[in-house]
């Protein structure tokens, strides 16, 4: 298992990548449908919450991190039901929209759960393999050069086009 400092640096890098992807999906004119933009941002927001929880408790079990992240995401979503003039004014700003959102939606909770689940699965797989370097090494298939593979040659026969 990588050192605590290495794990925290990896988590911080992942969080920054997820934040950049989320802002990019929401703000760049990518030509994606509105629903894709909304829910992709929510999935990435859920993944970010998982990353932040893991950054605070890097040695905690993946399931526990996911449960805490989901509880926080649900609380933030429920917080959207609270309205004060100051809070609503903040929610109308870009930072307020990205951090808190404006309107309560059960579908957001579903999207957060998907993002948290994907982040937890990625976290678990990198922990099990001992980090990103080991994951890349496992995917590289060492020893694949020794596999004897000779596919048969295809013969392509052409014929004249019938335009009648």
Helices and strands in order:
Layout: H1 4-27, H2 34-56, H3 62-79, H4 85-91, H5 94-99, H6 106-129, H7 132-139
* Main beta sheet: none
Distance between the termini: 70 Å
- Globular, elongated, flat, extended or rod-shaped: what is the shape? flat
Q: Give the fraction of residues assigned to helices.
A: 55-70%
Mean pLDDT across the residues is 85
Walk me through this protein's architecture.
The protein has 164 residues and is mainly α. The chain has one domain. The chain has 7 helices and no strands. The protein has helices spanning 4-27, 34-56, 62-79, 85-91, 94-99, 106-129, 132-139. It starts with a helix and ends in a 25-residue tail after the last helix. 18% of the residues are buried. The model has no long low-confidence stretch (mean pLDDT 85).
Brief overview, please?
By secondary structure, this protein is mainly alpha-helical. It has helices at residues 4-27, 34-56, 62-79, 85-91, 94-99, 106-129, 132-139. The longest helix has 24 residues, at 4-27.
Q: Can you tag this structure with a few keywords?
A:
about 160 residues, mainly alpha, 7 helices, about 65% helix, flat
């Amino acid at each position: 298992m990588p050192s605590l400092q290495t794990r925290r640096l990896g988590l911080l890098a992942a969080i920054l990548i997820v934040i950049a992807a989320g802002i990019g999906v929401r703000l760049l004119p990518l030509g994606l449908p509105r629903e894709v933009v909304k829910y992709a941002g929510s999935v990435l927001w859920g993944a970010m919450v998982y990353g932040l929880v893991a950054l605070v408790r890097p040695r905690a079990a993946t399931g526990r991190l996911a449960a805490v992240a989901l509880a926080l995401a649900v609380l933030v979503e429920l917080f959207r039901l609270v309205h004060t003039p100051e809070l609503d004014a903040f929610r109308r700003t870009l930072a307020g929209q990205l951090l808190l959102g404006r309107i309560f939606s059960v579908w957001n909770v579903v999207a957060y759960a998907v993002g948290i689940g994907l982040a937890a699965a990625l976290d678990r797989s990198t922990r099990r393999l001992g980090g990103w370097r080991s994951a890349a090494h496992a995917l590289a298939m060492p020893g694949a050069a020794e596999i004897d593979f000779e596919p048969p040659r295809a013969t392509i026969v052409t014929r004249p086009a019938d335009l009648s």
